[in-house]
Amino acid sequence: MSNFESLAVEAQNILDSADLLYNHQQIDAALDEVADQLTAALGEQTPVLMCVMNGGLMTFSTLVSKLHFPLQMDYIHATRYRDSTEGKEVKWLAEPRYDLKGRHVVIVDDILDEGVTLEAIIQYCKEAGAESVSTVMLVHKQHDRCITGVKADYVGLNVPDRYVFGFGMDYKGFLRNIPAIYAVSD
Ligand SMILES: O=P(O)(O)OC[C@H]1O[C@H](OP(=O)(O)OP(=O)(O)O)[C@H](O)[C@@H]1O
Ligand SMILES: Nc1nc2[nH]cnc2c(=O)[nH]1
């Protein structure tokens, strides 16, 4: 069996034994609330919404479909876990296309864990001259290891201090497409 095939089998076993945290309906309702809050805060600001690839993709596409005001979409690709379940240093794979100078930027990602990735992206946007940087996270992992001062302005759902996957979040590069959020079984 090649590497990707054995990983696919492992991922299926992980899914079969995982604990469901939130189903699709609960995720959708949480993103409805975030969309309402963003509309109230930024509906007049013509923001740039910035998808953090790859994990942010499903949250981003669901969220923007709920926003009915003028905005632009862009993406940034920063990765720290690289198909592993342990974080390393942040690696940049793609920078945004829009000039962020003077713009209200909204970063949209799947998970705030230790905050290393988010801190690097906020710093990037500020150095690019953004007028404001707001942060949206589908989930916030509950522990006290997050970098001091790094926070999400808008959070959909809280998750326990366990490895989680689904709705964009991967297990070794798989299971991002599952339309619910699970925790790997202990
Ligand atoms: O708060 P942190 O501890 O920095 O972890 C959060 C980051 O980890 C994941 O990205 P990953 O590096 O796995 O890349 P991916 O988006 O391609 O899954 C996730 O999408 C966040 O960007
Ligand atoms: N998929 C996934 N990515 C992460 N990045 C940081 N923490 C996590 C996690 O629990 N799950």
What does this structure look like?
Helices cover 29% and strands 28% of the residues. By secondary structure, it is α/β, with parallel strands linked by helices. It has a single domain, classed as Rossmann fold (3-Layer(aba) Sandwich). A six-stranded mixed β-sheet has the order 4-3-2-5-6-7, with helices on both faces. Helix 3 links the parallel strand 2 and strand 3. The longest helix has 19 residues. The two termini are 27 Å apart. The model has no long low-confidence stretch (mean pLDDT 96). Guanine binds next to strand 8.
DSSP helical segment count: 4
Strand content: 25-35%
| CATH-derived architecture | 3-Layer(aba) Sandwich
Gyration radius (Cα, Å) is 16 Å
Can you give the helix content as a percent range? 25-40%
Largest sheet: number of strands, sense, barrel closure: 6 strands, mixed
Structural class: alpha/beta
Gross geometry? globular
Biggest sheet strand line-up: 4-3-2-5-6-7
Give the domain tally: 1
- The H-and-E topology, N to C, reads as HEHEHEEEHEEEE
CATH class: Alpha Beta
The molecules bound to the chains, other than polymers, are:
1-O-pyrophosphono-5-O-phosphono-alpha-D-ribofuranose, guanine
Distance between the amino and carboxyl termini: 27 Å
Q: What is the third-level CATH name, the topology? A: Rossmann fold
Uncertain parts: none
The count of strands amounts to: 9
Protein name: Hypoxanthine-guanine phosphoribosyltransferase
Catalytic activity: GMP + diphosphate = guanine + 5-phospho-alpha-D-ribose 1-diphosphate; IMP + diphosphate = hypoxanthine + 5-phospho-alpha-D-ribose 1-diphosphate
Pfam families: Pribosyltran (PF00156)
GO molecular function: hypoxanthine phosphoribosyltransferase activity; magnesium ion binding
